[in-house]
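Worked example (supplementary).
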Amino acid sequence: MSDGVVVLGVGLHPFGRFPELTIDDLAREAALAALDDAGITFREIEAGLVGRVGGTGPPVGVGTHLFAQLGQHGIPVTNVELACGSSSRALMHAADMIRAGTADTAMVIGVEKMERGMLRVGGASENYASLMGLNVMPAAYAMRAQRHMADYGTKPEHFAQVSVKSHRNAMSNPFAQYRIAITLEEVLNSRMVCDPITLYQCCPTSDGASAVILASEAFARTHTASPVFMRAWAGGSPVYDNGREGEGEGPTSLVAKRAYERAGIGPGDIDVTQLHDAFTPGEILTIEDLGYVPRGQGGPFVFEGGTEITGERPVNTDGGLLSRGHPMGATGGAMVTEIVRQLRRQAGERQVRNCRTGLAQNAGIGGVNVLVFST
Amino acid sequence: MVAAGGTQRVPLREGTFTIPEDGGPPRLCGTRCPSCGATYAGQRVICLGCARRGLEPHALSPSGTVWTFTIVRQQPPGSIMKAPYPIGQVALDDGPIVAAAFIDIAPEDVRIGMPVEMTLVPIRKDDNGNEVVAHAFRRRKEAAR
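After joint prediction of all chains, the assembly is encoded as:
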């Protein structure tokens, strides 16, 4: 392909809690790391996009504010908000610009600073859902998990195993929020939050930033001999199905099908995957949606090690949202960073063998994105 | 509807559900497509099935079954529910699936497929002394309706 889109540089600010740092600090460090990784200067960036949900710091014009600190040479800067899927959607738009020829290079910064404690959705005002205690973030995943358990016999320990694996993977990721091993018993015996989800099956709130530089293939060829291509991307919003739980984040199976078609591949071609495990059921449900295993077999597949780094289908090799952390706006870019490191054979102890094609699935309230990468 | 003590019962948010004068069960306000018959929870203008513009008001079935559920173990701020409490989604008999607070059901007793029906719970008194009520679901008393 001569009109390909290349991921030229990736960079992160570590994920965790950094009360002394602003989003400016987080974003700048990630952006500079990505520029260094790409081997270019900021003056060579032709478009800027920022994925961020909100919280502390400037609410309006955040993208221009962040990019202005890196340099000011008049590039278009665009804010993209898709809740937890913000920076992956921003990457799709950046890739569209490059494919359309309106920019040769684009930088996507994802950044977030979050408060401790359970994420509040729907605001604090007296409304029906908050009054009746329905606005509880883990409950959405818990209800999908309950349905999966009833329909397919999935067990609590299947979900818990996702957290055991993600914690183990994060131990060799210096950018991860939690780098501690945890046993199945510890996960199952941690405080129950929303049955069957225990505390250690919930991702943390986090501070952090990611930056990804995309370039046209022609530009990239002058900077790297072994480019990683962003081959295909697809996004979607919910498909109405009588109102049942799971619609809020959109149709992963439909979006994945589109992405596979655009890439000219099938689910069997994916060697490494980063997916949206805000809570442990995310991994089990999503590997089914992506077509890696038949519907209903996600639980036993994960429990038997199928998604381990050494397994048949490595998933969330960097610790995922559960252990790497989930600063909402930064998450999509972090997923892509890990995919690129895997495809470049730079993942160290986390390296997946024979890794040529990678997939990122990033979901947020309102939509889902699937991005396919290959060497 | 007149509650004990002669006060009126008023919905937490007008237009969410109806309180029949005849003592019949409260029903959620939904919409129905006169063309294709698709039924929706809440107020829609355009049919998701056939794209018809202009749907009719439709009082949804007060009974259904538990589609899925969980037990909330951590007390959320600002809620009248006391953790642990069950919440879920109810598949109403006429189609739509709606978010549901459950009352008078022990958390550990909730099961997928359990028959439930709509009921009203008192929230507070308003400035006129009326009882503000919200909807919830309880175990269905009759076997079938």
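Two points are worth noting when inspecting this output. Residues 69 and 141 of chain B are 20 Å apart (CA to CA). The mean pLDDT of chain B is 91.
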